[in-house]
Predict the 3D structure of the following.
Amino acid sequence: MSPGWLFLLVLLIAAAGYVLGRSRALSATGGSLRTMHSLPGAYGWNVAMAVLIPSLLILAVWTLVAPAVLGRLVTPMMAGQEGNLSLLMSDVRRVADGLLLLGEDPASITTEGLRDRLAEAGVALGQDVSNATLAAAARYDVLGAWSHWLLTILVLSVALGAAALAVRRTTPTLRARNEVERGIRGLLIAAALVAIATTVGIVLALIFNTIKFFQIYPASEFFFGTTWTPSFGGGSELGILPLVWGTLYISTIALFVAVPLGLLSAVYLSEYASSRVRAWAKPMLEVLAGIPSIVYGLFALLTVGPALMLVFGDGGLGWMQGGTAVITAGLVMGIMLIPFVSSLSDDIINAVPQAMRDGSLGLGATRSETIRQVVLPAALPGIMGAVLLAASRAIGETMIVVLGAGAAARLSLNPFEAMTTITAKIVSQLTGDQDFSSPEALVAFALAMSLFVVTLCLNIVALWIVRRYREQYE
Amino acid sequence: MNDMRLFERAATVDEVKIRAKDVNVHYGIAHALKDVSVDIGDRLVTAFIGPSGCGKSTFLRCLNRMNDTIAAARVTGAIELDGQDIYDRRVDPVQLRAKVGMVFQKPNPFPKSIYENVAYGPRIHGLARTRAELDEIVEKALRRAALWNEAKDRLQSPGTGLSGGQQQRLCIARAIATEPEVLLMDEPASALDPIATAQIEELIDELRQTYSVVIVTHSMQQAARVSQRTAFFHLGHLVEYGETGDIFTNPRDPRTESYISGRIG
């Protein structure tokens, strides 16, 4: 029985357990709710939980672990073969899947024409099937079938056994409500753990690959090298400094655009705009935040770049060689960040108590004096936090840079020159077929790790500032 | 209630500082204040009393045009300060509020130092030319608000770090630092404990030397203790207005009598 059906069956048993548990609790008291510890539904849920938790756990763990164990069991059969063992094993797995699709008895099948027949069934292979591969695949299928049967028997017996036990335990004095409460807490913890575990997994993957990179490429050259000339033929220079410079330069321009515009529009929206204007202006501004960054990238490439060329290019001032430049990407990224800054600042400004404004207005201050001297200082920590969050987004932005800033890694002060950032280079190092043992590909992990550390620090500082100064006016 | 004091403190000075005639206030479709006419004397403490929602705070906010900051509020009628209509188009509400200061129900010091809180008004109105002058204004205001002794060693620490009663006195100091002519107080002691309340009341009595003080209060004892004139509001109407002693001992209107004896409210 496949895991999908098994899952449905377990749900069915749990549902039956719910009905049984509920009715057993009710019948034991003759339907009088007052003499029961919990509501009838709680007894039902208690039984359902007793079924679901162990059987689903077994199901999940088995499904995750079984392929690895099966592979281990079959591997010795391929030991004598030529070639990379892990590639061979992946062939075995594909043939095994294909045999199941063909639905023939593995014992009677021959290698002759097998590759074409598998291709017809939708399993493409890189080479003809050897005898050893076929034998291993057949063995794999047999073991797989065994594993399915074992799993089915185990899960069903656990589910039924747990249901029987839990129903027998159901008496009116059972604290079913508290059990259910514990179950809910467990569910919430599990959900949180999934998120945390994923993050930890990502970080670990980054760390291990970064270590691998530094084993084949010296860290000092990576961190202090001023040239970035990767070449897959070997002899690359992989210095991060030009990329860091490009990232900081573009982000700074973006913030110079986004912070004043975003902040001023936030002040207008929260302090001056009538509720009618606010009702349509704020959503309009937030639509900007919903535009995918690739669209901004197109905008940079096709509109802003050529427009800047008209003014600063050869026809105009002659400062700019091509449409893709730091200034192009910076401007467009700034526009992308405006709603981010304005919507966060707007919330923060609105959180400043009305009593502050009344106090200032009551002393004869004008609106703008009130905003400059009372509202903004009170909101400043929050606004700083918003700016730092915007900065960490700017640093992590990719598509606008790929399309708007060009691809040249360069250390230069001229904003009209093409430059590139860490993120854009991660993309270009991993595009296409890569050999993941070369420093040119692995450097992507080191770049990603550096980026991650920088944005993490920025976020921590931002949150710290927001938290540190939040209670000032409460 | 100390009844003996009521009779001793009959008003002696009788110049009209604010004259309101037929004032109506609408909040959207709600008619919050109906045909209120009242004369508020100079150098007197005038108390507005009445049950919640009776319009007394609304009327107080009309006197320095704070209702202008509420988009839905609409004020009609005439309010004159020293004979000048404050709702006249030539009057700048910002200038008006410098002359008619306000202290709010909840202490609302700015998130700045004690010194900066008091110096805020003088700064925006350019009342001091030098730092020394500003220091002097701040000290004077803090002394008048009876906060100087407690605050003089911590002028640079944040105003929000003071206790509730001190914060309210800081707000009063902040209001008088701009040298207003009228001081409006919207339930200034309702968020404070009895000791802080007593200090504020004492302060109000002092301020009467220089200012015309209008105070909204929920506490009839407070009105009786600090005011010379009392106005009783009910459901948007000004029911009765007169000498505080008369209102509390000899009310003419049955509604006033019911309220001060605790039957409505």
The domain at 3-260 of chain B is CATH 3.40.50.300 (Rossmann fold). Confidence is low (pLDDT under 50) at residues 1-11 of chain B.
